[in-house]
Design goal:
Elements lengths: L2 H40 L23 H18 L1 H7 L3 H15 L7 H32 L5 H19 L2 H10 L13 H40 L7 H15 L2 H11 L3
């Protein structure tokens, strides 16, 4: 009974406060609106339209004369040669035989990745430079330097640069392979070997190099194969059939290869085979 008068009085006070607040807001509303309008007018409008971009034009300008066309052709030929450099390195030099023999040697020893591929390829590259250095020097002297000094035309330089390279490849090629590709290309045999086209000389050289590399790989396999057979026979006689023979023969093969100075003999045989 004592809380009812208190509740009525509090409700009356709340409604009176709300009415006063409404009158104050209505009286001060225009001034706030004017302040907002003034602030809005003081701020400069922002242009959100994207700026006009400059037109992009793509033009293809050709050569203005024979000299410009000749320079463009030289750049095109140079880019083509650079893109085909790995193929030239593999097919026109001693790199093919050397890298295959070194790969066979690693397999014959039985070491999985010792030496790894990077070491084998690096060694093959340097041995290729050693073997090809006389040929490269002759090519540079007879064709490249005169062409750079403008002493001969591009056609003459291209014809002369092939002669030392052909002589090197023909010194390693077999007549049987040359006859095969002469027959496949329907080409008549010329009077001089250096007159053979590169279309015949290059595949004949690669085929001969593959056969020679496999022959050398077979010779390298024989001593290590004998060690594997002896170790396997000993293990079988001792009843150790569950023990892998490769695990026992690998140290003996490495020991034999080190005692005979195998790397020296292999590298010497590879380089002297081209001389």
């Amino acid at each position: 009974m004592l809380q009812k008068p208190f509740t009525t009085a509090s409700c009356t006070a709340r409604w009176a406060f709300v009415l006063v607040l409404m009158f104050v807001t209505a009286a001060s509303g225009p001034s706030f609106a004017q302040t907002d309008d003034a602030a809005t007018s003081a701020i400069a409008p922002i242009d959100l339209t994207p700026p006009a971009s400059a037109p992009i034009t793509l033009t293809l300008e050709g050569a203005t004369g024979p000299e410009g066309m000749d320079s463009a052709l030289k750049i095109l030929v140079l880019m083509t040669v650079l893109s085909l450099a790995p193929a030239f390195l593999i097919l026109l030099t001693s790199f093919t035989r050397i890298v295959i023999v070194l790969g066979f040697l690693r397999q014959a020893i039985g070491a999985n990745q010792a030496p790894n591929n990077q070491i084998i390829i690096g060694l093959a590259l340097f041995l290729t430079l050693v073997v090809m250095s006389p040929t490269l020097t002759e090519m540079n002297t007879t064709a490249i330097q005169p062409f750079m000094n403008e002493e001969m035309s591009q056609e003459e330089a291209f014809a002369k640069v092939q002669i030392p390279l052909k002589e090197f490849m023909l010194s390693q090629v077999r007549e049987k392979d040359v006859a095969l590709f002469l027959d496949l290309t329907n080409t008549e045999a010329p009077d001089e070997p250096t007159a053979l086209p590169m279309l015949v000389v290059v595949p004949s050289f690669v085929l001969s190099e593959l056969k020679t590399a496999f022959q050398m790989g077979f010779i390298l396999f024989i001593p290590f194969l004998i060690i594997d057979m002896v170790v396997a026979s000993v293990l079988m006689s001792m009843g150790m059939m569950m023990l892998p023979p490769v695990l026992i023969s690998l140290p003996f093969k490495i020991l034999l290869f080190v005692l005979v100075d195998g790397w020296f003999l292999v590298v010497k045989s590879l380089v002297q085979a081209f001389q």
